[in-house]
Specification:
mainly beta; Phosphatidylethanolamine-binding Protein; three-stranded antiparallel β-sheet; 1 helix; globular
Length: 164
Amino acid sequence: MKIVALSLSVLALTTGVAMADLKAKVAAPWNGKKVPAGQNCALDGGNGSTPPFQVTGIPDGTVWLIVEYNDKSYKPLSRNGGHGTIGYAVNGASGSFPAVPGMSARMPKGVQVIAAAKSTGKYASPGYLPPCSGGRGNSYEAVVKAVDANGKVLDKTRMSLGRY
């Protein structure tokens, strides 16, 4: 019995790992280590946009990539799209996705604001809030979720945006 239970546990773990094929990485001029010059918020003298990015391993049935942008160093905006949640229409198992403007609800075709940034006051944004830590070395990342037509998350991964 112990051998059967152990075998089932190993099989379950192996199956879970095999399903995690979704991968995302920022594209130039972003490198995932440092936020590029000018890609910060207007309050810090920038005119930032989301990074363009590439995704592979998109599961069958995915219709949207839902991307939650976060500042991991600033607790109020550190999760669940603290810097905004943007949806990108998907067609295929991989793709390149465009940069979209910060501080705006206007998005290009195939992209939409799912939830505005959770920032308030002079930091409020109707969409994506670019990095706005004043250059203190905060760590920014995005959670990328592959979602089907019913809103079910099929897979997810994390993408480092860099420090600012």
